[in-house]
Design brief:
This protein has 347 residues and is α+β, with helices and mostly antiparallel strands. It folds into two domains: 2-63; 70-245 and 266-285, Ribonuclease Z/Hydroxyacylglutathione hydrolase-like (Metallo-beta-lactamase, Chain A). 33% of the residues lie in helices and 26% in strands. Helix 6 packs antiparallel against helix 7 (288-306). Bound molecules: zinc ion. InterPro entries: Metallo-B-lactamas, NDM-1-like, RibonucZ/Hydroxyglut_hydro, SoxH-rel_PQQ_2.
């Protein structure tokens, strides 16, 4: 199997260049890759006026950078994200990602933080299988999970997400495109385009041949567009950011809704792949740190509101034991207090 690689630079910053992988929906031989290269590169560049292009080449899968994946059940693979909030060292590649390989096709769970990360996930998949990538399932809108989506559309996948995912991305796309490049570096995002889902889904089964995925949208919790994916054969639930470990949870939805989701009984679930932290973890123990943090957040903010404290005072809350336990506590906790305060002051 061969892949087209195109050398490209930022038009506004000509020293910032990278080789981009242009995936084909069906596997190509070396000859097919060469004979279609000029036309495919030209078509791709039409969608990227921010880039200038250099030479292209065709390379076999084995020569491409591949994202590390570990197999946690037959045909079920997980990539563990790096530590911390997005920065230039981790290039935003902090989220856990999943791949399901059935006998009739492949599904990807979350796309990674950039075109570059999605490419290395694609190469890692192609090193294992040449079956069609039928679906990219986005667990929610946040950039570390969604920014690689466009690559999987080019690779032939249908992009699925919760019914409110498209509106969530559309409302924030412009501000992310301003705030995100300085955090992770312009080079990390070279060629990255925001992609909207092809279709929203609230409750759906996806059969991949020996692997059944159950997609289920969630009431407002971490965000208003969370969606979980259950791998029936192994009892594994991909929670997206409804569960965090190590990195402090970030509240972009509803603390009440989030705790209600955590309290639902799920006898069918044996283990989870959380959005951040080690994966897999047992259920429900693997969600205990998230639950404990959110319960304390809600209790503290309710008490502040009851005591008549303004938000500007409430956000000074700091628990030393939690600060020692979580990454990014001092950055994310004040924001969580402010989000919870805005929600709970109307109770
Ligand atoms: Zn998130």
């Amino acid at each position: 199997m061969f892949h087209l690689l195109l050398h490209a630079c930022l038009a506004a910053e000509p020293a910032t260049c990278a080789e981009r992988l242009l995936p084909a929906p069906a596997p190509l031989t070396e000859e097919e890759c060469h004979s279609t290269a000029a036309e495919r590169a030209a078509g791709w560049l039409l969608r990227h006026p921010e880039l200038t292009a250099g030479p292209s080449r065709c390379a076999p899968t084995a020569d491409l950078p591949q994202l590390p994946l570990k197999e946690i059940a037959p045909g079920l693979l997980v990539h563990e994200g790096q530590d911390g909030l997005p920065d230039t060292a981790n290039r935003g590649e902090i989220a856990n990602l999943g791949v399901v390989i059935g006998s009739q096709g492949i599904a990807v769970i979350d796309a990674g933080a950039s075109r570059a990360q999605a490419e290395s996930l694609f190469s890692a998949i192609r090193a294992r299988s040449d079956l069609p990538i039928r679906a990219l399932i986005l667990t929610h809108m946040h950039p570390d999970h969604s920014f690689g989506a466009d690559l999987f559309r080019e690779a032939g996948a249908e992009i699925l997400g919760a019914p409110r995912l498209a509106a969530g991305i559309e409302a924030r796309a412009a501000s992310w495109m301003e705030s995100y490049p300085p955090q992770v570096g312009n080079g990390a995002l070279l060629g990255t385009l925001m992609a909207l889902p092809d279709r929203g889904t609230a409750d759906e089964r996806l059969e991949l041949g020996g692997a059944t995925l159950h997609l289920r949208a969630v009431a407002t919790a971490h965000t208003d567009n969370d969606l979980t994916v259950f791998h029936a054969q192994s009892g594994t639930l991909f929670t997206g950011d409804l569960v965090f470990n190590e990195l402090l949870p970030t509240l972009d939805g509803s603390v009440n809704g989030w705790l209600a989701w955590l309290d639902e009984p799920r006898p069918e679930v044996r283990r989870i792949v959380a959005g951040h932290g080690p994966a897999p973890l047992p259920w429900p123990d693997g969600a205990e740190a998230t639950r404990t943090y959110l319960e304390r957040l809600r209790t503290t903010v309710r008490a502040a509101i009851a005591a008549g404290q303004p938000m500007s005072v409430a956000i000074r809350d700091r628990d030393p034991a939690e600060a020692a336990r979580w990454q990014a506590y001092d950055t994310s906790h004040p924001r969580n207090v402010s989000a919870a305060y805005a929600e709970l002051e109307w109770e």
